[in-house]
Amino acid sequence: MAEPRLPDEIKAGELDTEVRRDLRGLQxxxxxxxxxxxxxxxxxxxxxxxxxxxxxxxxxxRASRIAVVREAAGIVAYHAGEWNEALGELRAARRMGGGPxxxxxxADIERALGRxxxxxxLARGPEVKELDRADRIxxxxxxAGARRDLGEIEAAVVxxxxxxxxxKRREPWSSRLFYAYADNLLAAGREADAVQWFVHxxxxxxxxxxxxxxxxxxxxxxxxPEDDExxxxxxxxxxxxxxxxxxxxxxxxGEATDAEVAGETDEDETDDTAPLGDADLDDDADLDDDxxPDDADESGLADSPGDEDADDVLGTEAAVGEDxxxxxxxxxxxxxxxxxxAAAVDEEGTDETSEDPAGxxxxxxxxxxxx
Length: 371
What we know:
By secondary structure, this protein is mostly helical. Among the domains are: about 1-115 and about 260-280, Serine Threonine Protein Phosphatase 5, Tetratricopeptide repeat; about 290-350, no CATH class. About 40% of the residues lie in helices and about 5% in strands. The protein is built from twelve helices and two strands. A hairpin with a 5-residue loop joins β1 (about 340-345) and β2 (about 350-355). α2 runs antiparallel to α3 (about 50-60), α8 runs antiparallel to α9 and α11 (about 190-205) runs antiparallel to α12. The protein is elongated and about 60 Å long. The model is unreliable at about 225-270 and about 275-370 (pLDDT under 50).
């Protein structure tokens, strides 16, 4: 295959140190080239996965016996929607490098290929014990999706319950876990609970990984602004930081045949590698209490607005010097959340106290499918 063009600014030194170490078995020139193509693949994988796959395939061709290269090729193929290729590369990387590998990704691919049973088999495998916490959470989310594929909705809900499903926790995986739980609650017909957990997901989603705010708006009947959906705010104070709508994590989907996944294809490709090395690839309503000018009483004095920072005024006494009436004063706008108390003095000096109750407040509910 032709070598994809590499911009001059891409340097091998940008590659992870552990990955570069695993490339030491290659000839120096080959190791440099493979490293640069892996860097290019990593830079393009989110925005242009197909171009990224070209670089990953080239690196795989030049170093097919390096586990970390096969692993990288599998991950990039997964993002590009090449399910069979991705699964084959990840399986090869596990055989060559050992360890649990990317079980959650592999299980998700099995779902995409229409084999949820195999996804659940991977979720029950012995290698699961070797996964770190983040990978176990991702695998649980994928397994819940596989159970939904099989129509086992309640099992999917129960499968996500545990100590990590705590709305007070803020871990890197919390927003995705809360979102997946909410999504499965909704599938089970528990809409009120689903809304609550979507709120938790939105609150925990500081990096914009989910579209929890959009789901809340959809379920509660809120309309998204047509011009700028990114600026929607749901259930927050007027002056609170805005929570922005973000795209949901891409679910693995696509058409593919339920065929057996092809194995390695090392035999027909050029391999410039030396012996195998081990590695790991590495969201109070605005009180718009615009106080209208009160009608002047018999004395001609209007109510005056209260002060947000002062005690409530019980009454105001004024000395009547002249038997003249003043013009009605226009009250200044009341700050949000302020109780308005005022007093008017009649000709005999009698205090009349009026009190305006505070306005309503909007409360945010207390308390989210796959990769």
